[in-house]
Amino acid sequence: VAAEALAIARAGLRARGRRDAEGRDEVIYLQPLEAIVAAGRTRAEDLLADYEGRWGACVRPAFTECVF
C-alpha cells in the first residue's frame, strides 16, 4: 500500500512541474519515505531496536543520536 501511495505522490509531484534552483522536482522530498518502504522498517522500529539492544534500555543515547 505504501509503495502504491508513493507512486501516486511521485506522479502528482512530477505533474506539478515545480523545480528548485538545481532543476530538481519535488519528488526529492519523497526520498526518505522511499527508503523506509525499501527497507521495510520504520524509523520508530529502528529506534526501538536500538533501545532494546545497543542502548541497553536507556533512552539517553537518543538525545545525541537523533539530533537533526
UniProtKB/TrEMBL annotation:
It comes from Klebsiella pneumoniae. This is Glutamate--cysteine ligase.
